[in-house]
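Its record is set out here:
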Amino acid sequence: MAEKLVFKEGFMQDATHEEKIAAKFVNCVMKDGKKNAARKVVADALMIAEDKIGEPALAVFKKAIDNIRPSVEVKSRRIGGSTYQVPTDIKPGRQTALAFRWLINFSRSRSEKGFANKLAAEVMDAYNERGGAIKKREDTHRMAEANKAFAHFRW
């Protein structure tokens, strides 16, 4: 087994981009202010994924998040008594937030025992471009594609 994944307190100036994303993800997983518990769960999940895939944990996590990240979404816009679903581009911060949210929600709905195992399974599925979070991204893109005729209502 590889060396234990450790999250540093705060952001170091030499911290890599992947470490910052993982630290943000820990904050999203955290419930009731229990950050150490969230750190342990995320670290365990990434170690499980690293063991099964055979690549570094942070690289697996980064690729999984990049695979989940949506590039367009639809927003409701009311025009002249009708409501249209208008496709819009998403800012990078929101893309990451949506990816985190979908990954956590679909992990919680899995049938494995223990959240670390659920999270590891969903991360591995996202890494391999399958699973609930990837399906959600594809549905979002499909909805935007279907409504691209209303793109001229964008503002």
